[in-house]
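Q: I have 336 residues here and want to know how they pack in 3D. Can you give me a structure?
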Amino acid sequence: MPSFSAYDSTGIEHFTISSFRFTSGDIHNIRIAYRSINPSSSKKVLIPTCYGGRINTTLSFTSPQQCLSFHHVIVVAMLGNGESASPSNDANFPKSLDYRDQINAQHSLLTQHLDINELEAVIGFSMGAQQAYYWACMYPKFLKHSIPICGSAKTSVHNYAFLEGPKAALTNSVDYADGTYRAKGTKPTRGLRAFGRTYCTWAMSAAWFRERKFESMGFDNVESFIQNQWEDSFESWDAEDLLILARMWQAGDVGKTSKSGDYLKALEGIEAKVPEDSEIEVKHLKYGELAVIETVWGHMAGGGANEDDTHWMNDQIASFLGITSGDLNFKALSLD
């Protein structure tokens, strides 16, 4: 879920990759934004951002007593999210993006800049989850665990169709002006707010709305929730950043990483251990485990929208990585 709070640049660093080759064939210098937390730890975990996510709004599980509080966690911004190289900050940015571009850029950040050649895990929510799948397919020996949260190895037709709605709301707005708004020196505010309004119902479940859970977030009614959470949040984004990432999301398919082009065969080749929230993918994983979040918070449960679900995910990840509460308590006490 996009954040409606002021942008937080705390701890964010940048690394420039020269002559980066995109899947499209474009060769371009790019800058990757990231945050390195607990860099002295020998256990390394990568967490890519999700759609609408920024580095410092991404759930990192690094708060005291959380499962990654003693891991070196690298939170990396996707290309196209406005923090790393994107249409909004690079006039010569390519017109299309592929998940393979994200993973290759992140691999360069880790190996060329941070001197990391092995990961304990890649953890990601939504589009971050798709990146976790791509990592396991593209660099199977590089990571021990891939932890996708509320994401798929291949974007479903249903998911593709949903994204057409917000995209159309934005690109058909008067102020988007068929993409010429920048030349006019304007911002497609109406289009961006329409994007957020169209998007919001897909993030939570029908039960969530029926139980008026938006009141627990401080909103008196659903209209206030839509305007102040979703419209305001997406208004802060750049239109072309939203669109290029939405198109990449729609084209997500780990089958592109294999010679066969079959995403199920690509899944069968994954060597990392994978906890799964999808019954489809887990059937094709050698070392997959199914873990379903029982919640009315819908998709956004995986992004940290609800404290109870976040606690559940924290415990699941700790168990999967072999971390016990006793380990955390001992380490915490040893720092006093």
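Q: Anything worth noting?
A: The first helix runs from residue 99 to 113. Residues 328-336 have pLDDT under 50 and may be disordered.
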